Amino acid sequence: MARVVLGVAGGIAAYKACSLLRLLTENGHDVTVVPTAAALRFVGAPTWEALSGHPVSTQVWDDVAEVPHVRLGQAADLVVVAPATADLLARAAAGLADDLLSSTLLTARCPVVMAPAMHTEMWGHAATRANVATLAARGVTIVPPASGRLTGADSGPGRLPEPEDLYAVCERLLAGDRREAEDRREAGPLAGRSVVVTAGGTREPLDPVRFLGNRSSGKQGFALAAVAAARGADVLLISANTSLPAPPGVTVVPGDTALEMRDGVLSAGKAADVVVMAAAVADFRPREYATEKIKKTYGDGADGGRGAEAAPTIELVRNPDILAELVAARGDDASPVVVGFAAETGDAHGTVLEHGRAKLERKGCDLLVVNEVGAGKAFGQDTNTVTILRQGSSHTVEAGPASKEAIAAAVWDAVQDIL
Ligand code: C5P
Fold first, then answer.
1. How close is the Cα of 320 to the center of ligand 1, in Å?
2. What architecture does CATH give domain 190-281+319-418?
3. Residue 363 above 90 pLDDT?
4. Whose Cα sits closest to atom 2 in ligand 1?
C-alpha cells in the first residue's frame, strides 16, 4: 500500500481522474485527492471524497493545525497530477505555492508524475513547452498527452491519456522507488545498523509564551540522518524545534526540551549501534515554569512599587548532560558508538581545538565533531567546516568548508572506521 496524492487541475479531463482514482484505491493504495478550485467546477468535492474516502480541500486554510500543505507532500510515496493544465504547469514550474496542490508539489520529495491535458494550441505554446522542460529537468515524469478528439469538434494532441495507462506509470514509479530504496539499504555500508541522530536546538520553557533557546537550525543533524539512511541504516531522528522535511527513510520524533530529548535518546540509544548528538541541548533550564504569562508590569503595585525598573530574576538549574549519561550507561561492549558535537569559540584559555580535545576527554565519547561558531559561522548556514577528533588518537580529520551533507559523509566515514 502506498500513499498517493492525486492532484487534479481545472480541465475537462478531470472526470477521467475519477477512473484513475478508482484504479489506485482498488489496488490497495491510500489516495488523497487535491483538486484546484477550478477542478471543482468540473467534478465536485463529494465525488472525490466518496471515491477516495478522504476529505478534500483546495486551499491551505482548512485543517490548519494539521499543516496539510506540508504534511501531504512529505508523507506521499507518489504525487500524480492528472490532468495538469497549462496554468498548473506554469505555477509548478515557477514554484508558486498559492493553493494546496502547488504547495504540496513543493513539499513532496517522492516521485511526481504529471499528465498534461489541454487544447493543442496551449500545449504547443512556447511558454508551456518551457514549463514542461523545466519540470522534466527537475525530475518530474511527464506523461505526454494523447492525440485525438478534444473538448469540442476539433482534434489534435492534448487529450489526457487513458486512466489505465496513467495507472501503469504510477505503479512503475512506485515499484522502482521501492526497489531502489531496498537495493540501497541492502548494499550500503551502514546496512543493518540502527542509528539515533539528534538535531535542532532545545527550548526550555519559562512561561506559556517564552523559552530559553539557541540558534541551531537542525540542518547538520538532518544531513547526518539523510546520509545514514542513504547508506542503509535504520535511522531515528530526534528533533528539537526544527521545521525541516523528514529525509527519505528517516523516522522523525520530537524532543523539544532537554528533558524530552534525554528520554528519547536514553530509551532509543540502548538498542542502537550509533548515537550522534548533533542537537544543541541547553545546559540550563529555568528552575520554575510559570503557568501564567509573566506580566510586563511585574513588580508594580502593592508588593513591589519598584515601577518601570522592576524585572524578574530567572533562576536556572542544570540540565542533565545526555551525552555523558549515555556514555556512562554503556556496558563492556562499548556500544553504542557515541558521537558528540562541540560548537566552540576560541578564547583566552585556549584555541577552538584545545577546547575540543578537553571536551572529548571530559565527555568520554568516541568521536567529537568540533566546529567554530560565531560571526556567521555554522548556525543556520548550508555549509560547515569541522575537525573530527577520535578518542585515544591524535589523528584528526578536517572536513570543509563543504555542504552539511559532505560533512555528514565525513562523520559517517569516521563512524564506520570504528564499527
Ligand atoms: O558540553 P557541550 O554542551 O558543549 O557539549 C556538546 C555536546 O554534548 C553535543 O553533542 C550535545 O548534543 C551534547 N549535550 C548533551 N546534553 C547536554 C548538553 C550537551 O548531550 N545537556
1. 9
2. 3-Layer(aba) Sandwich (3.40)
3. yes
4. 342
